[in-house]
Design a protein that fits this description.
Bound molecules: threonylcarbamoyladenylate, magnesium ion
Distance between the termini: 34 Å
Radius of gyration: 20 Å
Order of helices and strands: HEEHEHHEEHEHEEEHEHEEHEH
Oligomer: single chain
Helix content: 25-40%
Strand content: 15-25%
Shape: globular
Number of strands: 13
Largest sheet: 9 strands, mixed
Number of helices: 10
Length: 328
């Protein structure tokens, strides 16, 4: 693994590897990605292979900025342009009509393409170096095996794919859950995956309501993050409201097994069966810690993970969404 402190060299090396058609683990502000040249069919196919990802789940293409959107997209609705102007670089992915002949492999044969401009300084330095080598877009899904918990540190990526993969270390991801995805190929914008940006924030900038997939006609769940079960640790996840969780904890002595608990303000009995991790009280910090907490519970080989249902307000949509799918 490339270590911190060698950043100048390592970014150039990583860019050269990408230009040669290799795969590189890349930090972004949301989660770590598994990057390849979006226009290199063989490299993109290798991502699908090592992730064991079904071929019909397209990859997001990462670009430096709005000026590169026309390379991959043939049309940008005005509301989408407003979203890009305000939220890029950042945790927002837009699905746009794809320019014929570009990003074919990444798009998994669809006539649309997902585009995102990450703000993480290491991914930006990497994309700049790639641009100089003629690589315009980096296809990058989250750097985890299909269906598993997304990685938020370089070590998580090594844990998933082993030491042979080149991984740039950019520290712990500050957002911690994946980007919000908005489908801009329909008449109205549709939120395919909630992320760090709330629906209200997005609607205010788009200047129109952002629909949910259930409200949009003919909106098939093409995003894997929208499958009912996803983001799953090895241990079974149970979501419970505060009262139910408190009851379950009170009767714990009768249970066998080793249980991880992620909750906000409960009285948690000290017990050798229990591994307690506090759920942060604000949604941004909770998002940042969520995937690391799930991985930590797995590393401690707990049998079950009991999680307190997050509050109902929209700021928690991203975290609630990931937890529901982890528990499904
Ligand atoms: O924050 C993120 O978005 C991270 C970082 C690495 O950028 N990436 C990420 O990629 O979460 P991935 O592949 O794990 O999730 C992207 C989702 C997938 O569920 C995929 O099916 C969906 O976006 N997607 C990509 N292109 C699409 C398209 N053209 N139409 C519909 N869904 C698309
Ligand atoms: Mg993913």
């Amino acid at each position: 693994m490339i270590q911190k402190g060698q950043k100048r060299v390592s970014i150039l090396k990583a860019a050269e590897a990408l230009a040669r058609g290799e795969i590189v683990g890349m930090p972004t502000e949301t989660v770590y990605g598994l990057a390849a040249d979006a226009d290199n069919q063989a490299a993109v196919a290798e991502i699908f292979r090592i992730k064991r990802r079904p071929a019909d789940h397209p990859l997001i293409v990462h670009v430096l900025g709005v000026d590169l959107v026309p390379e991959f997209a043939r049309d940008v609705p005005r509301y989408a342009r407003r979203l890009l102007d305000v939220f890029w670089p950042g945790p927002l992915t837009v699905i746009l009509p794809r320019r014929f002949g570009r990003g074919d492999a990444a798009a998994g044969g669809q006539d649309s393409i997902g585009l995102r401009s990450p703000s993480h300084p290491v991914s930006r330095a990497l994309m700049t170096a790639c641009g100089e080598l003629g690589v315009v877009g980096l296809a990058a899904p989250s750097a985890n095996q299909f269906g598993r918990v997304s990685p938020t540190t370089a070590q998580h990526v090594v844990d998933e794919f082993g030491d042979d993969l080149l991984v740039l270390n950019g520290g712990a991801c500050p957002v911690g859950i994946e980007s919000s995805i908005i489908d801009c190929t329909r008449e109205a914008p549709v939120l395919l995956r909630p992320g760090g940006l709330s629906r209200e924030q997005l609607a205010a900038v788009a200047g129109r309501p952002i629909l949910l997939p259930a409200d949009a006609k003919g909106c098939a769940p093409r995003a894997s993050g929208t499958l009912a079960s996803h983001y799953a640790p090895s241990a079974r996840v149970h979501l419970m409201d505060g009262a139910a969780l408190q009851d379950a904890l009170s009767s714990l002595s009768t249970r066998a097994g080793h249980i991880g608990v992620w909750s906000r303000a409960l009285r948690v009995p000290t017990s050798s069966f229990l591994l307690f991790r506090p759920m942060p009280v604000d949604p941004q910090t909770a998002a940042r810690e969520l995937f690391a907490a799930l991985r930590d519970f797995d590393a401690h080989r707990v049998n079950e993970i009991w999680v307190e249902t997050p509050p109902p307000d929209s700021g928690w949509d991203g975290v609630r969404d990931r937890l529901k799918r982890a528990a499904a």
